[in-house]
Amino acid sequence: MSQVQKVNTPQYTLPGGIYLIQSIIQVVIIGAGPAGILAALRLQRFNHISPIIYEVRSEPTTLGGAVGIPSNGLRLLFRLGLWDALRERGAETSTLSVHAIKGQVIGNMDMTSWSREKTGFGYLRIRRVDLMEVLYEEARKAGIPIHFSKHLTGIEEDNKGVTVTFSDGSSDKADLLLGCDGIHSMVRKLYVDPNTEPQYSGISNIYSLVPTSELPSAAASIDGLNVMLTTDGLLAISPCRASRDMVYWFFSRELAIPPGGDTRDGWEERGKQQVETIKSIVLDLIKDSEGEWGLTIKESIRQTNTLRFYPVYRLPTGGQWSKGRCLIIGDAAHAMQPHASQGVSMALEDIFMLSNLLDSNLGSLNEAFRVYEQKRRHRVDEMHQLAERNGGIRKRTPPWQLWFKEIATSGVLGIYNLFGLGKLGLGQKPLAYDVEEDTH
């Protein structure tokens, strides 16, 4: 029945189901996304715990656009030895340029000037497929087994460990179970917190990746994140590869839940309708945009052959994160809107906090989980709120209000740069947070 052969090891259990940290030799990880593979790498290298990963998909996914990883996450990737490989693929996009609806730049800022001084890292935009290729290669070199087509159907615990079962009849047993299986986590649904359900944020995204070879020559020189507020959402474009041979553009807007309720079929139908009309909608919104920026963004949209649509969901704060020998981390525990670019970074912070606590003198896994939640809750809630605030600028606005926002944005960024407010760390202090300092 077991997927792998286990070595019989002594179990250390105190009365009342209190598990000693010294008994943790093997970990089962559900989910082979960034959180799962990064957790496996860290626990194997730092804690000498043997990981095995199970993934519901039949093969490594190639879906997804580009993800942003700010200073706090990049520093942890460096400590895992992954920074050089990721830097070779992703694009440094620490600068922000805000454009008016007519195309002209109304303000610039370096989003990581202060946090870069504190951490040594800025902001990386990288295609999800490139990120995953680096992580899968690292797992391969580390000899970490990843099994695909594994649909989790059951979780059971006893004094000797935690057992997971899958729809194909196979099972596995370990000393620790980590749920790294995203916002729709089966580990959360089946075992840790069945009553917590994802909530729709009210915001949906359309995105695409376009080779710069198909665009005006100016596209290859796009630097940093370029954004434009419209009356119907936020439009943005940035490079996503170190070679600058590809741009990532997205349009983020307010959108109601489809008629008939929050069902997969409803969203798929709405998505199909949105994709069919989105290019003309966006082009109409920015029809007055002129100059190099206007030409580049319009051509990026016109040359787009494949669009991806997805509604942005989040988990409510305050959910349960652990039960017995099981802990859910990353989006499985606290998925937030992507508008603070903290998805990968929050998972990394979870992983390092857990890893360091398992190496501490706390003694029991129960106590480690208690301290883990005590230290992580405030930080996660803080970033959750930031992401929600940032999502607010995606909402519809009348033309007069858009004009006012452009003037206000120009003034604020002008003052920010004139007086060097970036040197004070305004808006950047969360990016310099070091989870390892918080562990001790």
Automatic annotation (TrEMBL):
InterPro entries: FAD-bd, FAD-dep_Monooxygenase_BioMet, FAD/NAD-bd_sf. Residues 26-385 form the FAD-binding domain. GO terms for molecular function: FAD binding; monooxygenase activity. Keywords: FAD, Flavoprotein, Membrane, Monooxygenase, Oxidoreductase, Transmembrane, Transmembrane helix. Pfam families: FAD_binding_3 (PF01494). The keyword S-adenosyl-L-methionine does not apply. The chain crosses the membrane at residues 20-41. Belongs to the paxM FAD-dependent monooxygenase family. This is FAD-binding domain-containing protein. It comes from Talaromyces rugulosus. The lineage of its organism: Eukaryota, Fungi, Dikarya, Ascomycota, Pezizomycotina.
